[in-house]
Design brief:
heterodimer; A: mainly alpha; MetI-like fold; two-stranded antiparallel ribbon; 12 helices; 2% strand; flat; B: alpha/beta; D-Maltodextrin-Binding Protein, domain 2; six-stranded mixed β-sheet; five-stranded mixed β-sheet; 20 helices; 47% helix; globular
C-alpha cells in the first residue's frame, strides 16, 4: 500500500508541478483581467467621484457646518440649518412652487409630445418636415430659448402682447411668472419627449393596428387600447426623467425672473443657487440640496412602485 | 497577449486624457494665449489663458475680467497696450456683474491660478471683496508710487475709501436719474422743461400723465434706489457710520425713521393709482411708451437715446427727493476695479499701471460720452471734446450736475450681506406696493431681517 502511494506520489509530483504552474498562470490571468477591468473603470470612477459622489459627501458635510465668507466651514452646527429651513416659510414656498412647476411642465409636455408623435406616426405629406420641426428644439440651448422667449414676452414691446393685443406682464407678474417660465421649459421638453415617443410608437407592431381596424375600432379606442399601453414604459421613463429635470431646472428661472416676483418662481433648485451664488450662504444651500435629494429619491421610489402596477411591458 | 497589452495601453491613455482634461490649462495653453496676445492690439474674447509674469515679449501680462458688454473696454485696453511696452492687458468680458464676481470667487477659492489680475466689481460687492481678503487694496500702490488722487471727484474718492484705505480704483460710476417723455408732458399740458423735483410732484405729474394704457410713472423695486433715497435724506442703513467706521452690527433704517419716510413716499405714489409695476423692465416700458416717466441708472442714457431715436423726445432730470427740504445728494452706483490678491506683487504693480490709465481724463471722457456713466476725473470735464459733446447731447450732463451738487460725504452703506439684505428689503417693499403690508410693518420687518443676517454673518466671520 505504502509503496503504491509513494509511487503515486512520485508520479503525481510532476503533474502537481505542472498544475501549480497552470494555476499560477490562471491566477495571473485572472488578476490581469481584474486589473484590466479596474483600468477601464478608473477614469469613469474618478470623474464620478470628483463630480458626483465627492461633491455629495462635501454637501452633506457643509450642511451641518456654518461657513464663512470664503465658503470654508468654520463651526459645527448639527441639524440647526435643517431645523431653520423646515420651520421657515421660504423652504415650503419653494417646495410648493416646485410642485406647481412640475405640474405645469411635465403634464403638458408629455401630453403634447404624445399627441404630436401619434399624429406623426401616420404617413402624410409633410410628415418628415414636421418630424424634424418637432424634434429640433431639443438641440437648442435652453438659455437661447429663454432669451428668445423673453424678447417675445416682453410686456411693453414684446411680439406676443402686440400680436394678441394683450397687456399682460408675463414674467413680471406674480400670477403669470411661473407659467411664462414653464412655457420655455416645455418648449425644450416637448422635443425630447417627442423623439422618445416617436421611436417607441414605431416599435408597436403594425398587426395590432390592422386587427383593431378589422374590428372596427375608432381613433380614440385605438389610442387608449393599443397606442398608449404600448408606449407606457416610455411614458413612465419620460415622466421620471422629466420630473427630475424640471426639479433641477434653474437656468430659465435665473434668466427670466430670478425667483421673483416675491418668490413666485422660487423653485427649490433656484433657491439653492441663490443661497450659494448670490448670497454666498453655502450651508443653507447645502442643507436644501440634501432635502431636495431626499425629495427626489422619494419621488423616484414612488414612481418605481407605481410602475409595477400601471406600466404594461410587452 | 499583445491584444491585452494594447487594451491596457488604451485604457491608460483614456485615463490620462481625462485627467489632463480635468487638470485644466497647462504650459501649452498659456503659451497659446501669450502668442495670441503678442499678435497685436486685437483683443481675444474667449479662453482663459493665465500667462506668466515674465513672457517672451518681455511684458508683464495682466488679465482683466469685466462686466461691460461693449467693445469699448477692449479698445481702451488696446490703447493702453500701444501706449507703452511694459505691460500687456487682456480684457475678458465675463458676463453680468454677478457672474463676474462669482467666477472670480470660484477662481480665488480654487487657489487663484485661473483668477484674473484685475476684476471689475459692482458697488454692492465691495464689502465682500474687502472682507474675503481676495483683493489687495489699491492704496498699497497709491502709497508706493505716491500717486496723486486729487483729480478724482471727491465724492467718488470718499465713497470707495473705507477707514482711510482706498480698496479699489473707481472706473464706471453712475447714479439714478428720472427719465421722462417730453411729448407726453406736452400732450398733458405740462411744461417739458420743468420735470418733477420731489416725490409729491412726481405723484401730481403722474396723475396728469396717466392715460389709457400708459402709466404715469413706473417705479422699479430696487433696493439700490432705496439706498439712494436714504443717503439723500442723510439717514443710514446700518450702524457704525453705514459700516464705514467699523463693521456693521445691525440695521438701523427703521429705527432712525429714514426708511419709513422713504417707504411712505413710495406708498404715496402707489396710492395715486398712476404708477405701474414693470419690475426690472421699467426702462423698457419707458422706451416702449407704456409709461411717461421712470427712474433708472444714468449709465443707460446712451442706450435710451439710441433705442428711442426719433420716436419721442426724451427728458432726463435729477432724481426726485422724498423730502423737499433735505438734499444731501445722490450717491454712487456702478463698479470699480480691484487688484486680485494672488501673492504676485509684480503683477499687481503692472495691473496698477493700467488702473491709472483707466482714470485718465481722456479715457474717462471717452467712456462718459459713449455710455452715460459720468467721468470720475474732474479734468475730463475741461476737455474741449466733452464740452462740444454736451452741446449736442445735453442729456448726458444731468448725472454730472447731480453728482457735482451732492455733498462729498453722501456715501452709501458697506456691509457684507448687502446683496441678500437688498432682496429682503425688496420683498417687503413689494408687499407694501401690493398693500398687503403697511409702510410701518414693511420697514420694521425688513430691518429685523437684515439685522438677523448681519448678526449671523458676524458670528461666522469673526474679525481677526
Amino acid at each position: 500500500m505504502e509503496t503504491v502511494k509513494q509511487q503515486n506520489a512520485v508520479l503525481a509530483a510532476p503533474r502537481c508541478k505542472a498544475g501549480a504552474w497552470r494555476g499560477a498562470a490562471q491566477l495571473l490571468r485572472r488578476v490581469e483581467k481584474r486589473l484590466l477591468a479596474v483600468a477601464f473603470i478608473l477614469p469613469a470612477l474618478y470623474l464620478l467621484w470628483q463630480f458626483s459622489y465627492g461633491a455629495f459627501f462635501q454637501t452633506l458635510y457643509s450642511s451641518v457646518h456654518l461657513t464663512n465668507i470664503q465658503g470654508i466651514a468654520v463651526e459645527f452646527c448639527g441639524l440647526d440649518l435643517y431645523r431653520t429651513l423646515l420651520a421657515g416659510e421660504e423652504f415650503w414656498n419653494s417646495c410648493l412652487v416646485s410642485v406647481e412647476f412640475v405640474l405645469l411642465t411635465v403634464l403638458p409636455s408629455l401630453a403634447s409630445a404624445l399627441a404630436l408623435a401619434a399624429l406623426c406616426r401616420k404617413r402624410m405629406p409633410g410628415g418628415k418636415v414636421a418630424n424634424v420641426l418637432f424634434s429640433t428644439p431639443v438641440a437648442v440651448s435652453s438659455t437661447c430659448v429663454t432669451m428668445v422667449f423673453m424678447t417675445m414676452l416682453e410686456p411693453s414691446m414684446g411680439l406676443v402682447n402686440q400680436m394678441l393685443g394683450l397687456n399682460w406682464k408675463w414674467y413680471l407678474d406674480g400670477g403669470l411668472a411661473l407659467v411664462s417660465v414653464a412655457m420655455v421649459v416645455n418648449w425644450n421638453l416637448i422635443a425630447m419627449d417627442f423623439i422618445f415617443l416617436s421611436s417607441a410608437l414605431r416599435a408597436v407592431p403594425a398587426s395590432y393596428y390592422e386587427s383593431a381596424s378589422l374590428d372596427g375600432a375608432d381613433g380614440w379606442k385605438v389610442f387608449w387600447n393599443i397606442t398608449f399601453p404600448s408606449v407606457s414604459p416610455t411614458v413612465f421613463f419620460l415622466t421620471v426623467v422629466n420630473i427630475l429635470q424640471t426639479f433641477q431646472a434653474f437656468g430659465p428661472i435665473n434668466i427670466m425672473t430670478g425667483g421673483g416676483p416675491s418668490g413666485a418662481t422660487d423653485v427649490l433648485s433656484y433657491s439653492i443657487y441663490r443661497d450659494a451664488f448670490v448670497n454666498y450662504q453655502f450651508s443653507p444651500a447645502a442643507a436644501k440640496s440634501v432635502l431636495l435629494f431626499i425629495i427626489l429619491l422619494g419621488v423616484t421610489v414612488l414612481q418605481m412602485r407605481g410602475e409595477k402596477r400601471r406600466v404594461f411591458y410587452q | 497577449m499583445k491584444k491585452r497589452i494594447l487594451a491596457f495601453l488604451a485604457a491608460a491613455v483614456c485615463a490620462a486624457g481625462m485627467l489632463a482634461g480635468c487638470g485644466g490649462q497647462d504650459a501649452n495653453s498659456s503659451g497659446a494665449s501669450s502668442e495670441g496676445a503678442a499678435s497685436g492690439a486685437s483683443q481675444t474674447t474667449g479662453g482663459s489663458g493665465t500667462g506668466s509674469a515674465a513672457s517672451e515679449d518681455g511684458r508683464v501680462h495682466v488679465t482683466f475680467w469685466h462686466a461691460m458688454n461693449t467693445d469699448l473696454i477692449p479698445e481702451i485696453a488696446g490703447k493702453f497696450n500701444e501706449s507703452q511696452d511694459e505691460v500687456y492687458v487682456e480684457a475678458l468680458y465675463q458676463g453680468a456683474y454677478g457672474d463676474v464676481l462669482n467666477n472670480f470667487r470660484m477662481a480665488m477659492a480654487a487657489g487663484g491660478q485661473d483668477a484674473p489680475d484685475i476684476v471689475q466689481v459692482y458697488e454692492g460687492g465691495s464689502a465682500f471683496m474687502i472682507e474675503s481678503g481676495y483683493a489687495t487694496p489699491v492704496q498699497t500702490y497709491i502709497d508706493e508710487e505716491n500717486y496723486d488722487l486729487s483729480d478724482i471727484l471727491p465724492l467718488i474718492r470718499n465713497y470707495y475709501t473705507y477707514n482711510g484705505t482706498m480698496y479699489s480704483m473707481p472706473f464706471n460710476s453712475s447714479n439714478a436719474v428720472l427719465y421722462y417723455n417730453k411729448d407726453m408732458f406736452r400732450a398733458a399740458g405740462l411744461d417739458p422743461e420743468a420735470p418733477p423735483t420731489t416725490f409729491e410732484e412726481l405723484g401730481e405729474y403722474a396723475k396728469q400723465l396717466k392715460t389709457d394704457g400708459v402709466a404715469g410713472v413706473a417705479l422699479p423695486i430696487d433696493t439700490s434706489l432705496f439706498e439712494f433715497n436714504m443717503v439723500n435724506i442723510g439717514k443710514e442703513i446700518v450702524d457704525n457710520g453705514n459700516g464705514r467706521n467699523a463693521r456693521a452690527t445691525k440695521a438701523v433704517f427703521s429705527d432712525n425713521g429714514g426708511g419709513l419716510e422713504v417707504f411712505q413716499a413710495y406708498n404715496g405714489l402707489y396710492l395715486t393709482g398712476a404708477t405701474e409695476d414693470f419690475g426690472s423692465d421699467s426702462l423698457q416700458a419707458f422706451m416702449g411708451q407704456k409709461t411717461a416717466m421712470t427712474i433708472s441708472s444714468s449709465s443707460l442714457v446712451s442706450t435710451v437715446a439710441n433705442t428711442v431715436g426719433e420716436n419721442f423726445e426724451v427728458g432726463v432730470a435729477q432724481m426726485p427727493r422724498t423730502n423737499p427740504d433735505v438734499n444731501c445728494g445722490i450717491p454712487v452706483g456702478g463698479g470699480t476695479l480691484w487688484l486680485a490678491n494672488k501673492g504676485e506683487p509684480e503683477k499687481e504693480r503692472a495691473a496698477f499701471q493700467f488702473l491709472k490709465f483707466m482714470i485718465e481724463p481722456e479715457t474717462q471722457a471717452e467712456w462718459h460720452m459713449a455710455t452715460g456713466y459720468y467721468a470720475i476725473s474732474q479734468k475730463a470735464y475741461e476737455l474741449e471734446s466733452v464740452k462740444e459733446f454736451y452741446e449736442e447731447n445735453p442729456l448726458f450732463e444731468v448725472a454730472v450736475e447731480q453728482i457735482m451738487n451732492s455733498n462729498t460725504d453722501a456715501v452709501g452703506p458697506v456691509y457684507a450681506v448687502n446683496m441678500e439684505a437688498r432682496s429682503k428689503i425688496q420683498d417687503h417693499w413689494r408687499a407694501m406696493m401690493e398693500q398687503t403690508e403697511t409702510p410701518e410693518e414693511a420697514i420694521r420687518a425688513a430691518q429685523d431681517e437684515v439685522t438677523a443676517l448681519i448678526e449671523q454673518y458676524n458670528a461666522t466671520n469673526p474679525l481677526p
